[in-house]
Amino acid sequence: MITSVNTLTYRILLNEEPEGGFTVSVPALPGCITFGENLNHALEMAKEAIEGYVELLKEQGEPVPDDSKTLEYSLTLAS
Q1: d(CA 62, CA 60)
Q2: Which residues share a beta bridge with 3?
Q3: Do 39 and 22 meet the contact criterion of CB atoms below 8 Å apart?
Q4: Beta-carbon count within 10 A of 2 CB
Q5: How many whole angstroms separate alpha carbon 49 and alpha carbon 43?
Q6: Are 21 and 36 in contact (CB under 8 A)?
Q7: What local confidence, expressed as pLDDT, does residue 51 receive?
Q8: 3 pLDDT exceeds 70?
Q9: What is the pLDDT of residues 20-40, one digit of tens each?
Q10: How many CA atoms lie within 13 A of 15 on its CB side?
Q11: If 42 and its partner were Cys, which of 15, 22, 28, 50 is the partner (CB 3.0–4.6 Å)?
């Protein structure tokens, strides 16, 4: 039996904290925020937080947002 796997894409924002580590937020999932002691840990924690959030949405019969069509650019301006 072949099962199809849906792929969800999420943009994450990582903010380096003055005391160390990174706070991670997921704009498409309001309130989905986590923390990692370093960049790799922050990415692992983000994946775990997103999976839990999406699972809860599915259990509650809520629509699951996806960022796959979101484009993002960073502009640098001289001050």
Answers
A1: 5
A2: none
A3: yes
A4: 3
A5: 10
A6: yes
A7: 97
A8: no
A9: 999 999 999 999 999 999 999
A10: 9
A11: 22
